[in-house]
């Protein structure tokens, strides 16, 4: 990839716009995502919650919420499989592109339909059930728009590619670009020829991730997996901290 | 032996008059905020009745507490770890607001704003959830004093288990009050249900608390608690529960509910117990054996071996002393008159109850017999199976024998003390009939009937050398924390986001928010309203007077300036408000 053309400046190939979109934006979003979570955790532990509305309404949530959440978890696994695992690895494992593609489309369709179905039920519920709607902040509304847009564009890209042609092999372009970001050798070239719906999906996803730490979506990062291993009853001593704030520098207690 | 100390409570139901003072003062102290309008850390239920939330005792529906699985081991009734995580997106057995009640306020404004009309204007009930008009159909004590019990008593869970004829008879003969707070269990199923591990039991005094910074609102604790004493704050999305008023208890004061109890029926004290035997006791195969099993978990603080182990475990000496003087230990283990509430939930609850003798006394008096005579009372305890069986359903998983024994002791105390009060020779045979000595019987009388403040509440304060570790530090200025009390009430992420405020400040801030906000459901004319409660009389708050005729803006400014000048130096202060 970039290793083949190390001497050519990136701007020659993709232009400033390409670099802004596929190099600068990903790093900015990634930085906001990480630092935003750190900041939110330090500043707003009390606000770090699912803000469940189950107390207000149970019937629609009972269907919509598991449908959406399990769907989005499968979608997440699919994205890890498609973006993180290189095509060469699956080839080496004896999985041909056709097999991969069929599996991805079948699994993706099921998960996509579940996710979108769940999302529709949840948004409908949020809008029509009075108490739930009045507990919806502007932040929530922006988050729902961003999330729905990203999911919708992703689904549209897949559907369009599969109906128009025999599908689009994003593992030649999008996936290497995605990995190049994390390998600190960003290669915006790979994204220039990608169908526009895939580009839009990637852009909206990056913006969603930048928005993520400031929304209720933060609950995902504290998925309680520790529950599986911890003892049932937690014993804790009184806090060792002085009052409710951390001691000022130079005033820490000694010998505790 | 692993000795731990537990702050515990006993309530003497014979003395409860159902005045709800405990509930009201608790509400004022702890849950007088938005999001917890329906929450009662302390509530008083009329028995027979449904309780709050409705029919919470029906564990076939609500799946609270522990049960023994097929291998005879303890398991959460609502399912173990994997099941909890699978169901995390929608808890299938969470009570909805309908099972509690929809909180409301009244539209008092119409009383003063309504135009002149033929009929007196009324303040309509407005839902605190939706802000709309609502019809009130239930509340936390809707069936108080058996009100409407003809319509609702068939829903008393315990009464469902007896026949129709007994049920009707029961309603005519029997009623008592049951004040309830969090049980601060030795084996808390709410803590075990919490996926985040936010609910913890304090190792110093056994108080069960929710860490508000770690709670993520997964709602499993609400299901897990069989007493339904963990509540979900629907505004902050966090669980909240009774705190045993830890900021008070830490400095040696009784809880708010105890302090304000007009019947002086609550007792607070320490109990030492063996933490190693907790699970074994909770897993007792026979449900009716749980009362006795839990009593065996408690350690005798007078035993020097126990005291030695306690010291090894780091329990301060004055705490061991306090455990020796503990009224709770005395009522549970010395006099054996206190019983646990629903031991069959297997959580080993630590708020115990002295069952009421008054229904028996009332029944005897109704027949014209001598209701103070121990022979008559003993016979009545034996004959009045219905109240005894009902009390047994509440306190001993259905075994009438311990309830019988307690009622006989209370009856014996009653007739023994009558002889003394009337100046007759006390009859030693009466205490002996219930396995007690005369001295012991008098001591029990002193604790139950006289109930002196310092004998009811034996609360060793948390240690001075640990004072800085107190969660609510009393040695520093409580307003002295990052952000300070001047910060706004709401952060950028909705209701009360931002750093944690100490509880004292939170109350201050909540009070201020309440005084400065206009209505729970924001009214349309909020911007133009004036709250006179926070107007100090200086200057003119915008909206107090209608705009002046000649150019509203200029006129107002002039007026404000005049007001400032008129107030002299106070004008500076007035400007800040």
From TrEMBL, chain A:
Segments spanning the bilayer are 19-39, 60-80, 100-124, 144-170, 190-212
Q: Which UniProt keywords apply?
A: Cell membrane, Electron transport, Heme, Iron, Membrane, Metal-binding, Nitrate assimilation, Oxidoreductase, Transmembrane, Transmembrane helix, Transport
Matches recorded under InterPro entries: Heme-iron_electron_transfer, NarG-like_domain, NarG-like_sf, Nitrate_red_gam
Please give the chief subcellular localization of this protein: membrane
Q: Which GO terms describe its biological process?
A: anaerobic electron transport chain; nitrate assimilation
Q: Per its UniProt record, what Pfam families does this chain match?
A: Nitrate_red_gam
One GO cellular component term, please give it.
nitrate reductase complex
Annotated positions binding heme b: 69, 79, 201, 219
**What is the topology of this protein in the membrane according to its UniProt annotation?**
Multi-pass membrane protein
The cofactors required by this protein are: heme b; Mo-bis(molybdopterin guanine dinucleotide)
Q: Which family does it belong to?
A: In the central section; belongs to the NarJ/NarW family.
Return the protein name: Nitrate reductase-like protein NarX
Query: Which organism encodes this protein?
Result: Streptomyces poonensis
Give the source lineage, highest ranks first.
Bacteria, Bacillati, Actinomycetota, Actinomycetes, Kitasatosporales
TrEMBL record, chain B:
User: Cross-referenced PROSITE patterns, in alphabetical order?
Assistant: 4FE4S_FER_2
What does the record give as cofactor?
Answer: [4Fe-4S] cluster; [3Fe-4S] cluster
Q: Which organism is it from?
A: Streptomyces poonensis
**Where located?**
Cell envelope
| GO molecular-function terms, A-Z | 4 iron, 4 sulfur cluster binding; electron transfer activity; metal ion binding; nitrate reductase activity
Pfam assignment, any one: Fer4_11
Q: Which PANTHER family match?
A: NITRATE REDUCTASE BETA SUBUNIT (PTHR43518), RESPIRATORY NITRATE REDUCTASE 1 BETA CHAIN (PTHR43518:SF1)
Entry's Gene Ontology cellular component terms: cell envelope; membrane; nitrate reductase complex
- Protein's recorded name: Nitrate reductase subunit beta
């Amino acid at each position: 990839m970039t290793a083949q053309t190390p001497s050519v400046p990136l701007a020659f190939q993709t232009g400033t716009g390409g670099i802004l979109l596929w190099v600068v934006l990903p790093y900015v979003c990634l930085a906001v995502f990480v630092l935003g979570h750190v900041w939110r955790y330090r500043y707003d532990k009390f606000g770090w919650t699912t803000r469940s509305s189950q107390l207000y309404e149970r019937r629609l949530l009972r269907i919509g919420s598991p449908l959406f959440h399990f769907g989005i978890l499968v979608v997440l696994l699919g994205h890890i499989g498609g973006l993180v695992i290189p095509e060469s690895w699956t080839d080496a494992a004896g999985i041909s592109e056709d097999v991969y593609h069929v599996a991805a489309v079948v699994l993706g369709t099921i998960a996509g339909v579940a996710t979108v179905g769940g999302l529709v039920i949840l948004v409908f519920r949020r809008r029509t059930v009075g108490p739930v709607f009045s507990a919806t902040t502007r932040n929530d509304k922006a988050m729902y728009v961003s999330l729905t847009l990203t999911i919708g564009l992703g689904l549209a890209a897949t559907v369009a590619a599969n109906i128009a042609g025999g599908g689009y092999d994003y593992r030649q372009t999008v996936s290497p670009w995605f990995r190049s970001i994390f390998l600190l050798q960003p290669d915006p070239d790979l994204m220039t020829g990608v169908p526009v719906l895939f580009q839009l999906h990637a852009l909206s996803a990056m913006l969603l991730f930048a928005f993520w730490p400031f929304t209720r979506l933060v609950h995902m990062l504290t998925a309680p997996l520790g529950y599986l291993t911890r003892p049932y009853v937690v014993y804790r001593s009184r806090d060792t901290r002085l009052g409710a704030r951390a001691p000022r520098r130079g005033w820490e207690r000694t010998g505790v | 032996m692993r000795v731990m100390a537990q702050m515990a409570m006993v309530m003497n139901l014979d003395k409860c008059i159902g005045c709800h003072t405990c509930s009201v003062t608790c509400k004022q102290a702890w849950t007088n905020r938005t999001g917890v309008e329906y929450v009662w850390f302390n509530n008083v239920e009329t028995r027979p009745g449904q309780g709050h939330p409705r029919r919470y005792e029906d564990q076939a529906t609500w799946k609270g507490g522990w049960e023994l699985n097929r291998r005879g081991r303890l398991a959460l009734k609502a399912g173990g770890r994997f099941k909890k995580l699978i169901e995390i997106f929608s808890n299938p057995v969470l009570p909805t607001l309908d099972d509690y009640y929809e909180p409301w306020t009244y539209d008092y404004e119409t009383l003063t704003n309504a135009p002149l009309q033929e009929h007196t204007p009324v303040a309509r009930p407005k839902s605190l959830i939706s802000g709309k008009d609502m019809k009130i159909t239930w509340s936390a004590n809707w069936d108080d004093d058996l009100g409407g019990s003809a319509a609702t008593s068939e829903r008393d869970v315990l009464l469902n288990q007896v026949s129709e004829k007994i049920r009707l008879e029961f309603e005519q003969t029997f009623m008592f009050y049951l004040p309830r707070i969090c049980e601060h269990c030795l084996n808390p199923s709410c803590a075990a249900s919490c996926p985040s591990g936010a609910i913890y039991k304090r190792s110093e005094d056994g108080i069960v608390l929710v860490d508000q910074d770690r709670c993520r609102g997964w709602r499993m604790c609400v299901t897990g608690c069989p007493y339904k004493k963990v509540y979900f704050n629907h505004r902050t999305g966090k669980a909240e529960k009774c705190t045993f008023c830890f900021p008070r208890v830490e400095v040696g004061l009784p809880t708010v509910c105890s302090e304000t109890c007009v019947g002086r029926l609550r007792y607070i004290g320490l109990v030492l117990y063996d933490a190693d035997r907790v699970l074994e006791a909770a897993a007792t195969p026979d449900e009716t054996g749980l009362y006795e099993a839990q009593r065996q978990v408690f350690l005798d603080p007078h035993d020097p071996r126990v005291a030695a182990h306690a010291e090894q475990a780091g329990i301060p000496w004055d705490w061991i002393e306090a455990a020796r003087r503990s009224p709770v230990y005395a009522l549970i283990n010395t006099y054996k008159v206190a019983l646990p509430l629903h031991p069959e939930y297997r959580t080993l609850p630590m708020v115990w109850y002295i069952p009421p003798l008054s229904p028996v006394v009332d029944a005897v008096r109704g027949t014209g017999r001598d209701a103070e005579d121990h022979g008559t009372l003993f016979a009545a305890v034996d004959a009045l199976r219905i109240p005894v069986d009902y009390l047994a359903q509440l306190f001993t998983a259905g075994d009438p024998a311990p309830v019988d024994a307690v009622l006989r002791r209370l009856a014996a105390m009653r007739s023994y003390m009558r002889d003394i009060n009337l100046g007759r020779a006390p009859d030693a045979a009466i205490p002996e009939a219930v396995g007690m000595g005369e001295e012991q019987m008098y001591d029990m009388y002193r604790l139950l009937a006289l109930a002196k403040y310092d004998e009811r509440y034996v609360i060793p304060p948390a240690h001075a050398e640990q004072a800085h570790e107190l969660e609510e530090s009393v040695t520093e200025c409580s307003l002295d924390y990052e952000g300070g009390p001047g910060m706004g009430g709401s952060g950028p992420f909705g209701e009360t986001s931002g750093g944690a405020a100490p509880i004292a400040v939170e109350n201050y801030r909540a009070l201020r928010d309440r005084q400065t906000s206009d209505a729970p459901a924001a009214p349309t004319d909020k911007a133009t309203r004036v709250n006179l409660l926070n107007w100090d009389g200086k200057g003119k708050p915008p909206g107090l007077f209608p705009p002046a005729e000649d150019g509203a803006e200029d006129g107002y400014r002039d007026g404000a300036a005049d007001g400032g000048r008129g107030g002299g130096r106070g004008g500076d202060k007035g400007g800040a408000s």
